[in-house]
Amino acid sequence: MSNPANTAPSTSRSTSKIDTFACEWCGLTVSTFAADGTLRNHCPACLRSQHITDHVEGGPSQCRARMTPIAIAVLRTGDWMVIHRCVRCDELTSNPVCTDDNQLLLLRMAVRPLAQPPFPLETFGAL
Ligand SMILES: [Zn+2]
Ligand SMILES: [Zn+2]
């Protein structure tokens, strides 16, 4: 089995057609826009992303390393955000959760701090 030539298509943001991309990490074909029309930047199956936007400078990033989901943040509106961290340069990003994101992974991330508290929970039992 020969490797297909890795020809990266030029991604122009001016075209508004429905695009797909293959997840670099689990291989799933992902549509660029979620069902509700929001721009999707992470894979719904493994929730991983790629560092292609420089969120500090505001432009495209040359990093292109893997961004792994590390935490959930809840906005005042009640919406969930996924916090991603780049494995190479440690940049942090937050992205809205899509309706078809892997809910098991989301919940696992959300309860992780409660499952592994950095202080003894017995303290609260004495209150
Ligand atoms: Zn994936
Ligand atoms: Zn990076």
Automatic annotation (TrEMBL):
Pfam families: RNHCP. Residues 19-106 form the RNHCP domain. This is RNHCP domain-containing protein.
